[in-house]
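One record is set out below.
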Amino acid sequence: MRNLSEYDLDAAVWHKSSHSGGSGGDCLEVADGHPTLVPVRDSKTPLGPALVFRAEAWSMFVEDVKQPRR
């Protein structure tokens, strides 16, 4: 696996969550184009740092979040 610095996120196309409200509040954005990684950033600070997750870990996280809670 390459180091994070080897991935150019400056040209990344970011997508806001479909659950985001129109106010642009607390929301995450993810970037496409990295087959084995999922870059994630805070939509309020687009020039701030991005976290990068392995695709498998991100998929498991998303599936867990979708599960109903009591």
The longest strand covers residues 37-42.
